[in-house]
Amino acid sequence: MFPTEPAAVNNGFGALLKNRGFMLLWIGQLVSQLADKVFFVLMIALLENYSPLPGLAQNSMYSTLMLSFTIPAILFGSAGGIFVDRLPKKLIMVGSDVVRGILTLCLPLLPRQFLILLILTFAISTVTQFFAPAEQAAIPLLVKRENLLAANALFTSTMMGALIVGFAIGEPILSLAKSWMGEEYGQELVVGGLYILSAAIMQPIKFKEPKRPREHRASNNPWAEFTESLRYLKKNPLILNAMLQLTTLYCVFAALTVLTIRLAEEFGLKEKQFGFFLAAAGVGMVSGAAILGHWGDKLHHKPLPLIGFLMMALVLGVFTFTHNLLLALALCGFLGIGAALIGVPMQTLIQQQTPPTMHGKVFGFQNHAVNIALALPLAITGPLTDALGLRIVLIGMSVVVVFVGVWAWKNTRNVLQDVI
């Protein structure tokens, strides 16, 4: 059912640096990712200047704003992937950045009403659902099969780097923009400018778009294409299994986002300093992705996802027995390396095993499934911790991670050792 030839020699990051199209895509997505994080900081900063809806308290405004970011991912995740297969990838990515940039630049011109801020945030998050699958589908069009592991490692590194750096420098950048360009429009000009800059960087890229099958060109029914993606995944358990592992990985990080607030208290930090733990995990992911990108060919026959799950389970299991802050941060870094050993190979596997005409639908469904799955750990982790205690929840997560890792590896180990 699946090709079993070993991947060609991976030249690490060296081959990617000579690939002009890929480098433009990478730099463009890095700028776009940075814009996303700074935009989120901007929305939080702007709340104090907006009139709330009647009966809505300040904390409720924060929660409502978060929902306006999250709901489009649940509603339109798969739809974005369907359009990616129908339209040129560059048009979607460049167009998405331009639209997000224009909407951001419109902020100072609109009334300072909270409802308007919600609508605009919802619109920008909706456009992002088209950018994400197009970006994933574009990588295999620009990179040779043997270099996909290094390419995904580089993308994972910069994605986590943008997450860490974006939230860290978001507030200083916006403060400088206010002082240099004025309080009325300075912040919005910087964020909107980042989106426009990302579009300009990716504009010169030349893609060789795959030809759509005749039956797809004749079909104008998005629902039929969505059900086609479900049938395709059902017939390809290897890809479905890889998505399950990625979803499990993101769910663990979603739960940790909630738990790190309690962990900060355990180590004598302020609640607002919970980001230290997430940043340490992010540094670990960057390190793990860099290792895979440079030495991936030497790790070709290693059970990387299984090793990654076991590393994460080990950290979760021993975390609450640790009382030294530096050791706890080091454990978070170790967990991040394990996460990279899962995320990078699994994303590469999906790209390798999915035909180009299905890339958009498969990646759209992947983003959709992940965003829906994230809602469960975000919803239950807090109440479970209150009811059972932090230690029991972390040990329970450790057991679940081991179970999923071993089960997934048993299902796919023979094929994965050949295609990764």
UniProtKB/TrEMBL annotation:
Molecular function per GO: transmembrane transporter activity
Segments traversing the membrane: 21-45, 65-84, 116-135, 147-169, 238-261, 273-292, 304-321, 327-350, 362-382, 388-409
Signal peptide: none
Gene Ontology CC, one term: plasma membrane
Gene3D superfamilies, alphabetized: MFS general substrate transporter like domains (1.20.1250.20)
PROSITE patterns in the record: MFS
Listed InterPro entries: MFS, MFS_dom, MFS_trans_sf
Entry keyword set: Cell membrane, Membrane, Transmembrane, Transmembrane helix, Transport
Membrane association type: Multi-pass membrane protein
Pfam families reported in the protein's UniProt record: MFS_1 (PF07690)
Main location: membrane
Compartments, record wording: Cell membrane
Domain Major facilitator superfamily (MFS) profile: 237-420
Annotated protein name in UniProt: Major facilitator superfamily MFS_1
Organism: Nostoc punctiforme (strain ATCC 29133 / PCC 73102)
